[in-house]
Amino acid sequence: MSGRSPTAQRLFWTLVLGGCASIRYGAVALAATASVCVAILVHRLDRPRRFRSLVRRIARRHAPTLALRRRQERFLDAYGNMIEDGWLRERDYFVERTVLPLIEERGYSDYAEPRFEEMVEIVERVAHAQVLPDERETPEDGIAYERYCADLLEEAGWDARPTGASGDQGCDVIAEKAGLRLIVQCKRYGRPVGNAAVQEVAAAALHWSGDMAAVVSNAGFTPAARKLAGTTGVLLLHHDDLLDLVPERRTGRRRAPATGR
C-alpha cells in the first residue's frame, strides 16, 4: 500500500470496510460505501481548483508589496524595451520562499515542481491587478534626480542635502536623522545598476563618516550588485522606498574620525 496515492488508499480502505459492513447490513452499507467513494473522488478531482485558490489567497495577502516591487523592477531602457529581469527574479523568489512552504504545509508538496509555472502566473496576475497610487514623475536629468531623492528623504523626516556635482567622492546626497548619517548615491539609469555603484558608496560612507549607505535607482540592480550589497551592508533602494526609510546603523559600519576627511 505504501506505493499508492492517498486517494487510492482511501478508496481501498473504504471498499474493504464497506464490504465488511455490507455482509452484516446489506444494501444500506453498500449505498453508504458508494457515497463515500464518490465523495473521495469528487474531492480529488477538485484538488487542482483548491490548490489554485490557496496560491491566490497567499499572493493576495502580499498584493500591495508585490505590485510595488513589480513597478519598481520593471523599466524602459534607452531603446524603449521593457526590462523585467529584476521583477522576474523577485516573482520567482516570492514563490520559492513564501508560496511553496505554505502549499507544502497544506498537503500540496506534489504540486511544487510540476505546477511551479502555474503558481508564478497566479502571482503575476495578482500583482498586475493590484491598484497602486500613481507613480510620481521622476526627473530625467541626473542632477535633478539627486535633488528629487533628497526631497523624498526630507518628506520622510530626514535632514537631506545634495553634495553637488563635483568632489562628492561617490556621495550624491547626505541625510541625517536620529543622530545617524546616511550616504546616498543616486542612479537615474535605463539599465540595472551594477556593483561599481555599491563599491563607490561603501567607500563614500567611510569618507563622509556615514552610519548607513545606499544606492538609489529607478531601474533595479544586477545580481552582482545585490550580492556585494549583502556583504557590505549597503542598501539598494528604489526611490519609492525613501519615503519609508528609517535610521538604522548598518552592521560593520563604523564612524571614521572627523579629522580623517
TrEMBL record:
Transmembrane intervals: 12-42
Record keywords, A-Z: Endonuclease, Hydrolase, Membrane, Nuclease, Transmembrane, Transmembrane helix
Domain called Restriction endonuclease type IV Mrr: residue spans: 144-245
Annotated Gene3D superfamilies: 3.40.1350.10
A GO molecular function held by the record: endonuclease activity
Domain of life: Bacteria
The protein's name in its UniProt record: Restriction endonuclease
